[in-house]
Write a structure and sequence with these properties.
Layout lengths: L12 E4 L7 H14 L4 E4 L8 E3 L1 H4 L9 E5 L2 H12 L4 E7 L7 H7 L4 E4 L2 H5 L6 E2 L15 H7 L6 E6 L8 H11 L6 E6 L7 H13 L6 E5 L6 H7 L2 E4 L8 H8 L3 E5 L4 H4 L7 E3 L4 H13 L1 H18 L2 H14 L10
Parallel strand pairs: 1-2, 1-4, 2-3, 4-5, 5-6, 6-7, 8-9, 8-11, 9-10, 11-12, 12-13
Length: 356
């Protein structure tokens, strides 16, 4: 059952993660779920469970069917909403909550499912604007202890064995939606001018994106930069924070995004940030202070925003310090968890801290 003693009789919250591939949704779930588990008797259903929360399997759900008190089922994907609606129709005493990050009009099935939820959370006001019902806006938080600046960034960089003295990174699955091509094209123009920098692309290359990735590799080779633009592929979850610590600058290049968790991960790690105006960037980033905002998909604008920071790494470091301070003030996991807990309480699920 996992690290906590959870039984069907006292369970208050189920965190379903019905998606085998690791994704941004999984990452947000993994960070906030242990915080919620300190406030509610909680269990995680599905792969990629984090430490700090109990686990249950589908067989364990059978014990919940006829219990007298409700259990929160907090979905973040359509398939998780479908399972919750189905279970409740078959007699499970579930209160259904859905978190929406999408910044687009929803399909008919998503609208139908949303209409059957007991409460809706949106990760930004923009996401909320696409919903046809009332939603509580709760911005994501980040684990500021795990995603912390290194004691010595130069040593962290040296540990990776990369050429040069500084790193600039772009994290996320390698695909056009994430703007990986925008980043690579900008690096092909900038790196020849700044020999102290190495570029790092961290993220999975799925089979359907292999052609896209191969094209990027051809561009890198044509520019003579195969040793200075590193594509790591997918990394173990626990290794990602260290890669942020190796960066001086982070480029968020998404063309469209639900929230964009890497924004606040990079800021929390003290990276200078250049971000496209996608996802929550305009809410999270104070333009010119904690980062620089650019139009999505615009290579010229990305180059123009990155070059002053690459020219002056001390200025980049100062921006990273301001970004870290802003995350500590506004985007902590505790703040996110407390606001989610308030939504649960409104559904008559009492908060009962678990003795530790």
């Amino acid at each position: 059952m996992g690290p906590a003693n959870i039984s069907a009789g006292n369970l208050q919250l189920i965190v379903p993660n019905l998606h085998r591939r690791y994704s941004g949704v999984t990452a947000t779930n993994r960070m906030v779920a242990p915080k919620l588990a300190k406030m509610f008797r909680s269990a995680w259903l599905g792969p990629n469970a984090p430490d700090g929360i109990a686990r249950i399997g589908f067989a364990d759900l059978l014990r919940l069917r006829r219990r007298p008190t409700p259990v929160i089922w907090h979905a973040r994907r359509n398939n998780e909403m479908i399972v919750g609606v189905l279970l409740r129709s078959l007699g499970w005493p579930l209160k259904l909550v859905f978190t929406s990050a999408a910044q687009r009009h929803h399909s008919w099935i998503t609208r139908w499912l949303i209409g059957r939820m007991d409460a809706i959370i949106a990760t930004s006001a923009i996401s909320a604007s696409f919903l046809k019902r009332k939603a509580t806006v709760i911005l994501h938080g980040v684990d500021t202890d795990s995603y912390a600046p290194p004691v010595d960034r130069a040593s962290a960089f040296a540990e990776a064995g990369l050429p040069g003295r500084y790193a600039i990174g772009c994290f996320g699955r390698v695909r056009a939606q994430k703007g990986t091509d925008v980043f690579v094209d900008a690096m092909c123009r900038l790196l020849p001018r700044y020999p102290d920098f190495t570029a790092v692309v961290v993220g999975a290359i799925t089979p359907e994106q292999q052609g896209f990735a191969n094209d990027l590799k051809r561009r890198i080779e044509a520019a003579g930069l195969t040793s200075r633009i590193l594509m790591t592929g997918e990394l173990p979850i626990e290794e990602v924070p260290r890669w942020y610590q190796r960066l001086t600058i982070y480029a968020f290049t998404s063309r469209n995004e639900g929230f964009g968790l890497t924004l606040i991960e990079a800021m929390s790690a003290g990276n200078a940030l250049v971000a496209s105006r996608a996802g929550a960037a305009e809410v999270v980033v104070e333009d010119g202070v904690t980062g620089v905002l650019t139009p999505p998909g615009d290579v010229d604008a990305l180059v123009a925003a990155l070059e002053p920071l690459m020219r002056d790494p001390k200025a980049a470091a100062a921006m990273g310090e301001r970004a870290r301070a802003q995350v500590l003030e506004k985007f902590s996991l505790d703040a996110e968890a407390n606001k989610i807990a308030a939504v649960y309480r409104d559904l008559s699920i009492p908060q009962k801290p678990i003795a530790r």
